[in-house]
Amino acid sequence: MTLDRTDPEGAIAAAAAKYSNWGRWGDGDVLGTVNFIDEAKRREGAALVRQGVSFSLSQRFGIDGPQKGWRRRTNPVHTMLDTGTDAALGIQGFPHGFSGADDVIAMPLQCSTQWDGLGHIFDRGKAWNGRPAERVVTSEGDLVTGIEHMAGPVAGRGVLLDVGRVRGEDGELPDGFAITEEHLRAAIDAHGVAVGRGDIVCVRTGQLARARRDGWGDYAGGPAPGLSFTAAGWLHRTEIAAIATDTWGFEVRPNEFDDAFQPLHQVVIPNMGLLVGELWDLDALAAHCAADGVHEFWLTAGPIPVTGAVGAPVNPIAVK
Known about the structure:
By secondary structure, the chain is of the alpha/beta class. The chain has helices at about 10-20, 40-45, 85-90, 135, 165, 180-190, 205-215, 230-235, 265-270, 285-290, and strands at about 55, 75-80, 100-105, 115, 135-140, 140, 155-160, 180, 200-205, 225, 240-245, 275-280, 295-300, 310-315, 315-320. Strands 1-15-13-7-9-11-12-4-14 form a 9-stranded mixed sheet. The chain has a two-stranded antiparallel sheet with strand order 2-3.
């Protein structure tokens, strides 16, 4: 795919039509490409466990996270409701010396490691499967494709494509680096791993490692390496179930068109039905994969089933 930087609307419309999965799983579908994960794919993923080593692919949910308030996205606010101090002072009101601690958290659902639900992005007024956006997501939440539908099925064969290690300097891609199909194929070849139907693909750019070393800066919303708009064909053709990256927005930023905002999102979520993960921590897993040369694993990544949410936190677990 070649890009005309001056025509994002034309490119988005063409890609949306070419890579649409509308109707592929019926008019009532709520899972999109997660339908590619079937029982055989889960058995295939489970059979990859050899060492019993597990990795959390989640960043922490804390007040010191990367969010800066853009579109009211803030870092989590954690508040204690009962504490050890309350217990010591005897003010909790329980009998026979019983006491404890309790807490609450307030946060945007996409402030740290998360999945974008199928109701998160619309294309010219249409949500996933061609439904009118106003009939899908209202003030009551996502009435059709709420993230709760993804709580069970997102488990299967995971594949790490460490593009940062394969194509970057010191394991990191520079901000603004557009990851094309060529780069993805180079990583596949370098790792000696296959990617295909039903896989959950994790793409490491190295940006999170850089942010941890140098400070958050504009990690949340600023320039970043990420998927090129031209990779839409690969995402569709491979029939992967989901893709997740260690960046804030999955696709390259600044975007590849003049006067555009997240055009790849506009194609892959409402039209392709692709499940997209962001802000994943892939560094420890990547180091282990590089050491043993195995870039496939069992991966379970069900979101917190917040009813009607258009995105939700997740603690993905990779097991090798």
